[in-house]
Design goal:
globular, 7 helices, mainly alpha, three-stranded antiparallel beta sheet
C-alpha cells in the first residue's frame, strides 16, 4: 500500500537502535564474558515463552510482542550460542577440550536451542545456530577427527533426517542445491 508507512517505520527504528548499537559497542568485553551464561539462559527462556505464548503468523510461532517492538528470540540465540560456548571453552584446560564430557556439554549447549527453534518451525535459523556452534567448537580446539566422524554420520543419516522435513523445506533445500 503506502510507501511512506514503511519508510517512516524503518527510519524511526534506525533512529532508536543505531544509537543503542553504538552504546552497546562501548561495553567492556569483560561484561559480555561475565553475562554470557545469563544471556544464554534468558534467551532459552524466551524461546520457551515463544513456543507457548508467541505470535502466530503464516503457520509459524516465532515472535514476542513487546508492544514497542516485536522480538524474535531465535535471532538473539545466534549470538547467545557463540558467547556461551566461547566462555565455556575459555574456562577449559587445553588438555580437557577433547574429552567426552566437554564435547557432550558443548553439543548440549548447541542442541537445546536448535530443538526449540525447529519447533517454531524455523529450519534456516536452526541451521545457522548449529553452524555458529560448530565453528566455535572448531575454534575451541576440538579435533578434526570428531568433525569428520560427525560429518560421515550426518551424511549416512541424511535420508532419515530429510524424511522429517515438511514439503516446503525439502523444496527450499532442493532449490538451494
Amino acid at each position: 500500500g503506502e510507501i511512506l508507512f514503511h519508510t517512516k517505520s524503518h527510519f524511526i527504528k534506525l533512529l532508536i537502535f543505531f544509537p543503542l548499537m553504538l552504546l552497546v559497542s562501548f561495553f567492556n568485553i569483560k561484561f559480555w564474558h561475565v553475562m554470557s551464561y545469563f544471556f544464554y539462559v534468558i534467551i532459552i527462556l524466551l524461546l520457551i515463552w515463544v513456543s507457548i505464548y508467541g505470535i502466530k503468523a503464516s503457520g509459524s510461532q516465532r515472535w514476542i510482542n513487546l508492544y514497542f517492538i516485536v522480538l524474535q528470540p531465535s535471532e538473539l540465540m545466534k549470538i547467545g550460542v557463540i558467547m556461551c560456548l566461547a566462555k565455556y571453552f575459555h574456562r577449559q584446560k587445553i588438555d580437557n577440550i577433547n574429552s567426552f564430557i566437554n564435547i557432550t556439554i558443548a553439543l548440549t549447549i548447541i542442541i537445546i536451542p536448535i530443538i526449540l527453534v525447529l519447533s517454531q518451525p524455523d529450519l534456516g535459523t536452526s541451521i545457522l545456530i548449529a553452524l555458529s556452534g560448530l565453528i566455535i567448537l572448531w575454534l575451541g580446539g576440538v579435533r578434526v577427527k570428531y568433525f569428520f566422524i560427525s560429518f560421515v554420520t550426518f551424511l549416512i543419516s541424511l535420508p532419515f533426517i530429510i524424511s522429517f522435513l515438511k514439503p516446503y523445506q525439502k523444496l527450499r533445500i532442493l532449490t538451494f542445491l
